[in-house]
Design goal:
This protein has 199 residues and is an alpha+beta fold. It has two domains: 20-118, Peroxidase, domain 1 (Orthogonal Bundle), CATH 1.10.520; 121-194, no CATH class. It has nine helices and four strands; from the N terminus they run αααααααβαβββα. It has helices spanning 2-12, 19-34, 38-54, 56-63, 69-82, 87-98, 105-120, 135-149, 182-194, and strands at residues 122-129, 154-161, 168-173, 176-181. The protein has a four-stranded mixed beta sheet. α8 (135-149) links the parallel β1 (122-129) and β2 (154-161). The longest helix is centred in the first third of the chain and has 17 residues, at 38-54. The chain starts with a helix and ends in a 5-residue tail after the last helix. Its main location: membrane.
Length: 199
């Protein structure tokens, strides 16, 4: 039945993704995993995103749905055959071209990377601070997060400098945000002081 196929489909991906881009990313993940080419496909799909960012003309082609479907599919097939891409990536990009979905390739790639990271047991953590975290503090943060998320997880920290938080730090991973910034504390204090006092 359709419901059973749907459940089987999502049992095989490391985490469920929703929406059109999630469905495309999941389908690409399954095809790549079944052919033992996850790393190669991940590299190729990120190369496509990189090419679109470097070339305004290629980026415009990817976003332009007025280009006839046959022209889009032919161009994509030729470009990525010449580049030596795997059949899985070529067929996937051709399907996107055929369905007028090339303009979503960057978001699909992001979600595909989410799946490959989950498959490898990796968790990306974004840490925003005013100054870079010292190596010792970053190591302690990774250990704390590993305790919370599971010893089998590999924590990948991406540090971002953000002067607007005024101090402290903001940690983001998955759908969670831990805001321990001075800016947030100041806003909370201001809200508290604006409340009427009972005397």
């Amino acid at each position: 039945s359709l419901t059973l196929n749907y459940l089987l489909f999502y049992w095989r991906v490391p985490k469920a993704l929703y929406g059109g881009t999630g469905n495309y990313a999941s389908a690409l993940f399954l095809a790549a995993a079944n052919s033992n080419s996850l790393e190669k496909v991940e590299s190729e799909i990120l190369d496509v995103v990189g090419a679109a960012k470097k070339s305004p003309m290629f980026s415009q082609f990817m976003k332009d749905t007025s280009v006839p479907k046959e022209t889009r599919v032919k161009a994509i097939t030729e470009i990525f055959s010449e580049a030596g891409f795997t059949d899985i990536t070529k067929k996937f990009l051709s399907a996107l071209a055929s369905n007028g979905r090339l303009k979503y390739v960057e978001r699909i790639a992001e979600r595909f990377v989410d799946l490959t990271m989950a498959h490898r047991g990796e968790v990306k953590v974004v840490v925003r601070t005013v100054v870079p975290l010292p190596e010792k503090e970053e190591k302690e943060l990774k250990e704390t997060l590993r305790d919370i998320l599971g010893k089998d997880k590999t924590i990948l920290v991406e540090q971002k400098i953000d002067q607007s938080i005024m101090g402290g730090l903001v940690i983001e991973f998955g759908q969670k945000v831990f805001d321990m910034s001075i800016r947030t504390r100041a806003k909370q204090m201001e809200a508290f002081l604006r409340q009427p006092f009972d005397i």
